[in-house]
Amino acid sequence: MIAALAFYFFAAILIASAVMVVSSRNPVHSVLFLILAFFNAAALFLIAGAEFLAMILVIVYVGAVAVLFLFVVMMLDIDFARLREGFQRYAPVGAVVGAILFLELLLVLGSWTFADQSAELRLSPNPGGDVTNAMAIGRILYTDYVYLFQASGLILLVAMIGAIVLTHRKSTASRRQNIGAQVSRSGSVLLEKVPSGAGIGTLGIRRPPVAEVEKPAVTHDAGHGGHH
Amino acid sequence: MDAFLASPIGILAITVAQTLALLVPVLLAVAYLTLAERKVLAAMQLRRGPNVVGPFGLLQPFADAIKMLMKETIIPSGANRFLFVLAPILLFMLAMIAWAVIPVQDGWAIADINVGILYLFAVSSLGVYGVIIAGWASNSKYAFLGALRSAAQMVSYEVSIGFVIVTVLLCVGSLNLSDIVRAQERVWFFIPLFPMFIIFFISALAETNRAPFDLPEGESELVAGFFVEYSSMSFALFFLGEYANMILMSALTTILFLGGWHPPMHMEPFTWIPGFVWFALKIALLLFVFIWVRATFPRYRYDQLMRLGWKVFLPFSLVWLILTAAVLKLAGWLPA
């Protein structure tokens, strides 16, 4: 009873927030509604007993993907009045495309047949026994289908490398910090044992020993030769 | 009585009682952490710190809380009112709900769920929303810059935290937090996984926006960063949320590496002290290090922060993960 009520509650919020994602005027609000939709989907997973999938959904989609969405949407300066300008003109074309997609979906669903055990499998993510569903997913992904899993990982890797190659520009103007060279440069840092409570003042202000030649020659004025 | 406790209302009553029994000490700890930070910082800088309100300044947190409550709440006219108010509530709420799965002692977790560590990871990865929404809803460029920095910073360090957690999970063979602590009965994980412990602690500093990674609020360049427009109670919620997150990350470090409720040795004088006291003591030790770090190190520059996360921690934790997996496999120590 309570589970059914909770299911309808989360499902109703899920659908309502999904509608708000496409209909809200402010893109930041859209992304926030998308996050709400993810949360409710995670709750539905929890009700079905798939707690591992629920947590992964929150970690991956809400914790990482949606943050990047939000990041981009906040940074972009989109002029929505201009985006909406051609709405009347493009509406018929959009309606035709939508109708074709809808027909195709109907055709697919019409020829759909359910597997024999689908009814009892649907809401039982655990294979039975004391196997948790993290372990069950692990067995399927890493034992039964490990080669397919690796292949999909490689495809994603190629996509990532492609995106980096396409967008990476080697800039010659920026000056990089070479941390290794900086740390290994000796002589420019002075280590001093300062008595506790007395402070550096008792030692007098010291100047570091003369640095090596690679340091650009900057004229120090007398007051600033302190410790780093 | 037993029949009542087994009924839905009874279960609800027990859960509420357990929640209060956990959250009231946590909130008190948050209040006194603010005082402890000021006292420890003062001692490290040869000052006295707050010592006027109450004996040794012990009532200072309450004086601060009352002062915060009396201030006027200001909402900037250009702000998005709903999100502006939502952000601090969200941040504070996330810091609180994470405690639901923390096992304070053997069998003392409110919800001892199978995927406890994933739940904690999910909740800590949501913390960035409080910051980013606050920065955007304030409609101010300082707040927005702080929020952008914070989003990039928290997402970056989460990656290496994830690998550290996977390394620990390899040694345990379970996602349950109580099982993780039980696996450390003989040797705490910070001994075999010492580099991971250090990486996790530094990433926890970055994740909670603490010094030397407090760039989101860097007051010397961004005034106060993402909460520059907040005042009164909404500011207090950010403040308390940050400290609650510090305690939470210390608790997580304790569970993953310092053996949770286990005493240092299972022998006479140590076993007299109950487990939750050991747990609290370990958290207090880590919190002291949090404050110690703040008093010692200057703030990182932004590009160095990113370099540390992506070019140092990420490859190192990945290599250590593979190394751990190989050692466990070759030595036959993999948990079933």
Automatic annotation (TrEMBL), chain A:
The keyword rRNA-binding does not apply. GO terms for molecular function: NADH dehydrogenase (quinone) (non-electrogenic) activity. Its main location: membrane. The chain crosses the membrane at residues 6-24, 31-50, 56-78, 90-115, 145-166. Keywords: Cell membrane, Membrane, NAD, Oxidoreductase, Quinone, Transmembrane, Transmembrane helix. It is an enzyme of class 7 (translocase). It is a multi-pass membrane protein. It comes from the Bacteria. Its EC number is 7.1.1.-. It is found in: Cell membrane. NCBIfam families: PRK06638.1-4. Belongs to the complex I subunit 6 family. NDH-1 shuttles electrons from NADH, via FMN and iron-sulfur (Fe-S) centers, to quinones in the respiratory chain. Couples the redox reaction to proton translocation (for every two electrons transferred, four hydrogen ions are translocated across the cytoplasmic membrane), and thus conserves the redox energy in a proton gradient. This is NADH-quinone oxidoreductase subunit J. It comes from Paeniroseomonas aquatica. The lineage of its organism: Bacteria, Pseudomonadati, Pseudomonadota, Alphaproteobacteria, Acetobacterales.
From TrEMBL, chain B:
It is a multi-pass membrane protein. This is NADH-quinone oxidoreductase subunit H. NDH-1 is composed of 14 different subunits. Subunits NuoA, H, J, K, L, M, N constitute the membrane sector of the complex. The chain crosses the membrane at residues 6-31, 82-104, 116-137, 157-175, 187-206, 270-293, 313-334. Keywords: Cell membrane, Membrane, NAD, Oxidoreductase, Quinone, Translocase, Transmembrane, Transmembrane helix, Ubiquinone. NCBIfam families: PRK06076.1-2, PRK06076.1-6. PANTHER family: NADH DEHYDROGENASE SUBUNIT 1, NADH-UBIQUINONE OXIDOREDUCTASE CHAIN 1. It catalyses: a quinone + NADH + 5 H(+)(in) = a quinol + NAD(+) + 4 H(+)(out). One of its GO terms (molecular function) is NADH dehydrogenase (quinone) (non-electrogenic) activity. It comes from Paeniroseomonas aquatica. Belongs to the complex I subunit 1 family.
